[in-house]
Structures are given as structure tokens and as C-alpha cells.
Design goal:
Layout: H1 2-6, H2 11-24, H3 30-37, H4 47-61, H5 66-76, H6 89-97, H7 102-112, H8 123-128, H9 130-140, H10 146-154, H11 167-171, H12 177-183, H13 189-203, H14 207-217, H15 222-231, H16 233-237, H17 241-246, E1 255-262, E2 266-267, E3 272-281, E4 287-298, E5 304-316, E6 321-329, E7 341-349, E8 352-361
Parallel strand pairs: 2-8
Antiparallel strand pairs: 1-3, 3-6, 4-5, 4-7, 7-8
Length: 362
């Protein structure tokens, strides 16, 4: 997958870039630019390395004056498809060369993010002057364009995937909260996902703060309810009782797991773990259920780590039974490698462990 992604930066794209720049800036030396891009290390470069390498090559061949270079790049922006990974080179240019040109950089980032996200490019500006940049992002959170509003939230996520960790905001996320407050009822799902992901980031270091926000926000607006549910996913997976209670997943002794069994307690790497169980309720009222299972995986050094998987959210009435037959794959993935040894599977009902089996992976 990584190899396929990095190939969005290819000969066709570079040819288009140099051609479009030359149309608006005839002094652009296309041959030098192409030679610089396709150096002896090009094939080995990763996705992010290719992106940054192209940016540096542009910096070495565009005018030295930042304002002039941004004018050129802005003029060719619409020649490239919106929303494409390849177009991140535009905000990346601002990240690399614009830190000493705040006003022009802010103007460019606002434009570029509407074409391809500037969520990574804003982060060095936050590090350089957090108060100034967060003030700007609060303004962006009320912008009429959804891409700019999303940038306000996504750009300040403390632990943005693929982006630098914002240590100051990780330690104290308070400056983020006015942005999220402005966006908590946003009409755009694109924006709401970002708000939820930002809160989920915060919950990993400040669960009490996110639980406080969840209690204050939940039940006020359908859009906000969706944000809070998605924002609390890590807390829910950890079986946090407060989080579960917010969404009506109460603990009860009147819910019973029956007939929990594995088809086999020995499987091969690349095979499937098949298991089944039933849930029975003696609760006099209808009960909301969050049904999950945990796998304690054996790792390369023999230790075990747990990963939780959601099966469903459901309701069950008094004296009723729900039946489940599930399959879990043990095929090796780029994100998970399997190792032989004794693993275990545990059912979780509303965050409470409700039965465990050991099984062997060969």
C-alpha cells in the first residue's frame, strides 16, 4: 500500500507541475527542476520523502522571493484535481518556506487547504507561535468553507497521524477547546469527524476533560451527539464506566453469556478463529448492549498485548436471547503480524469481561 501511495508522485505529475509553472513563469528552468527531482535516490524515497523532496526542488528553482513563488503556485492550483494527495505539495511549500512570512503564509494556507489539506503545514506555525496561530485557527473555525473550518480542528489535533505531535497542546489542550466549541454543531460531516478525532486524541491523555465535555454536550444536538459518540471511542473500548453510562450502556448482573465456545482451540497463522455465543436477559426493562471481544495477542518477544474489536450495539428485552456467530482472521497484515503461542479471547458486554477462552496459534 505504501509503495502504491508514493507513486502518486510520478513522472506525469512532475511533468504537469513544470509545464504549468512555465506557462505562468517563463523563467522557470524546467530541465533543472526535473533533474533535481529525479535524482539517484528518487526510487527509494517514501511517500513523505517524495513530497518534501519535490517541495525542496521547487524552492531551489522558483523565485527566491516567497511572495512571488506563492503567487505562481496559487495561479496553477486549479490545474490540479481537488482532494488529491499529490496536491499537498502546495501547503507543504508554505510549511517549508513560509515561517518567516506569516501574513502571506496564512493567506496561502487558507486557499491551499480548500484544494488539498493543510493540516500538516499549519503545525510548525503552532510550534513557532502557538498563541498567534491558535487565534487564527479560532477565526478559521467560523469560516464559510468547510475545508477551512476542518483545518481549524484537524491542524491542532495533538496526535495527528503522519504529523508531528504538538507537545504543548498534548500537555494542555485548553487552547483547542474554543475551536471545538465553535464546530460542535457543524453541518459538515467532514468537519464533525475532525472534531471527534481531536477530542479522541485529547481523551488519551486527559480522559476526565473529555468526559466532562461529553456530559455537557451530549443530548443537545444530533450533530453534537454523533461527535461525542465518535470522540469517546477509545474510552468506550477501554470499558470506561462513565463513558459507557453517557450512552446508556449500564452495567447489570441480569445479562448472561451462554454457550460461548470456539470451533477449535488450535488455528494456523493465516486461518480464522470461529466462535459463537448467546446473550440472555433477565432484566425487567429493555437493556442497551455494547458487545465486543478482546484478543490478547502473543508478540514477537513472547509478551501479550490486547486489542478490542466491536461486534455490535444492540438492545435486548426481558427473557430474550441474542445469538452470535463470528469469525476473526489471523492473516498477517501490514499493520499486524501474528506469532505462534497461546492467545486468548474475551467477550465484553458493556465493558465488563464476560467469559474467556485460551487458544493456540501455530
Amino acid at each position: 500500500m505504501a509503495d502504491a501511495l508514493k507513486n502518486v508522485y510520478n513522472h506525469d505529475l512532475i511533468s504537469k507541475i513544470e509545464n504549468e509553472i512555465h506557462i505562468v513563469y517563463t523563467d522557470f528552468n524546467r530541465e533543472i527542476f526535473i533533474d533535481k527531482v529525479f535524482n539517484e535516490n528518487w526510487d527509494e524515497k517514501t511517500l513523505k520523502e517524495r513530497m518534501r523532496h519535490i517541495t525542496i526542488c521547487l524552492g531551489e528553482t522558483l523565485p527566491n522571493k516567497f511572495e512571488k513563488s506563492i503567487e505562481i503556485l496559487s495561479s496553477i492550483l486549479d490545474k490540479f484535481p481537488k482532494g488529491q494527495l499529490s496536491s499537498i505539495i502546495f501547503p507543504d511549500y508554505v510549511e517549508v518556506y513560509g515561517l518567516d512570512h506569516w501574513e502571506k503564509s496564512i493567506e496561502a494556507l487558507e486557499i491551499f487547504t480548500q484544494h488539498s489539506t493543510a493540516e500538516f503545514a499549519v503545525r510548525p506555525f503552532i510550534v513557532q507561535d502557538q498563541e498567534r496561530m491558535m487565534t487564527q485557527m479560532i477565526k478559521w473555525s467560523t469560516h464559510p468553507n468547510e475545508h477551512v473550518r476542518r483545518l481549524a480542528s484537524e491542524g491542532c489535533r495533538p496526535k495527528l497521524p503522519w504529523g508531528m505531535v504538538l507537545k504543548s497542546l498534548k500537555n494542555d489542550p485548553t487552547p483547542i477547546l474554543p475551536i471545538l466549541e465553535n464546530l460542535k454543531e457543524d453541518e459538515s460531516l467532514y468537519v464533525r469527524k475532525s472534531v471527534a478525532n481531536n477530542l479522541n486524541d485529547i481523551s488519551k491523555d486527559h480522559p476526565t476533560l473529555v468526559l466532562k465535555i461529553a456530559k455537557e454536550w451530549y443530548g443537545k444536538n444530533p450533530h453534537t451527539n454523533w461527535i461525542i459518540k465518535h470522540a469517546c471511542r477509545t474510552l468506550l473500548k477501554k470499558g470506561n464506566i462513565e463513558a459507557l453510562t453517557i450512552f446508556g450502556f449500564e452495567t447489570t448482573k441480569a445479562i448472561h453469556i451462554d454457550q460461548f465456545q470456539l470451533q477449535s482451540d488450535k488455528i494456523e497463522i493465516g486461518g480464522d478463529l470461529n466462535f459463537s455465543f448467546t446473550i440472555h436477559s433477565n432484566e425487567p426493562t429493555t437493556t442497551k448492549l455494547r458487545i465486543e471481544f478482546a484478543i490478547d495477542y502473543v508478540k514477537s518477544k513472547g509478551n501479550r498485548t490486547r486489542k478490542i474489536f466491536k461486534i455490535s450495539e444492540n438492545t435486548i428485552e426481558n427473557d430474550k436471547t441474542l445469538s452470535y456467530n463470528k469469525t476473526h482472521s489471523f492473516k498477517n497484515l501490514s499493520t499486524r503480524k501474528h506469532y505462534p503461542g497461546q492467545h486468548s479471547i474475551t467477550l465484553l458486554i458493556n465493558g465488563i469481561e464476560s467469559g474467556t477462552y485460551d487458544f493456540t496459534v501455530n
